[in-house]
Amino acid sequence: MQEVTLVEVGLRDGLQNEATPLSTAMKRELAERLIAAGVKEMEVTSFVHPRWIPQLADAVDFACSLPERSDVCYRALVPNRKGLERALATPIDEYAVFLSASESHNRKNINKGIAETYPVLEEVVKEALHQGKRVRGYVSTVFGCPYEGDVSVGQTVEICERLLKMGVYEISLGDTIGVATPIQVKEKLKTLTRHVPPERLAGHFHDTRGTALVNAYVALEEGITTLDSAFGGMGGCPYAPGAAGNAATEDMVYMLEGMGIDTGIDLDALCEASLLAEKALGKPLPSKVLQSFSAT
Ligand code: HMG
Ligand code: MG
Questions:
Q1: pTM recorded for the entire structure
Q2: Which of 82, 156, 239 to mutate to test the pocket of ligand 1 (most atoms within 8 A of CB)?
């Protein structure tokens, strides 16, 4: 059976969109619980401007407080040189650079046009690789933009090629506002994988309209074996109006294990971590599997 890598993005994508900021100590407790549940690939924070994302303003302190684990890969977003300097002062293992397939979202999110973003990312990737870090790339709004609507697949192909040339090892394709539908995902991936091998791609589906899991399934059918998800189903980009949570890790694990794919994640322990997050955030989280766990 196919192997799948799940990248847990809840502590980053999840918390960046929450009204209630969590303390560094609570984030650490959640990280410990995720590790205890078997999570091995964990995006924990972003070295972005604290004014832009106040929920992750403690990025350096939090990253430095994480348990030392040689079997866990800690990841974080790095937008520019200043972010890289902050990241390099921490033990984060792997970085991710990011931009959008649509000009308007790129401007709203990182305050630059796409063309102006390339040299910034080039510098970050070059220096990060020089420092011995692996670098992932994200492309947002691949399946639709909150400001421009449809986004051409050609634009995504062009950005992916630029990112690969810079030296990123993988590109995560973001359905930032959760508008994608399965046939659209299939068609876009068929075009994309003519230019970028599926082993170099990952799926990052938000669940705004309830299609994240089925889109993830279609991505698997198209040969993608790395999927992003957030515990409890938290998530969303504050600079993409209407964006809701990521595919929930609980729901993803349930689906994958049901397909005979071993995720290495203990579902009950994961649900316990999400229950703690619900308590800390003071609200229920959307994962369906979590809801059924809570009801039993
Ligand atoms: P800017 O204001 O254009 O930055 O922000 P600047 O380069 O003009 O610098 C202005 C000041 O900010 C300077 O300080 C810099 O030092 C400082 P001054 O000299 O005036 O005192 N500065 C920083 N400070 C701390 N950390 C930094 C940093 N950079 C500059 N890294 C910037 C540009 C990119 C920083 C800003 O727009 C930003 O932080 N944006 C981040 C937005 C964000 O995090 N969005 C969510 C993540 S993306 C996402 O969720 C999508 C994804 O999940 C996939 C999907 O779902 O599609 C990945
Ligand atoms: Mg996202």
A1: 0.97
A2: 82
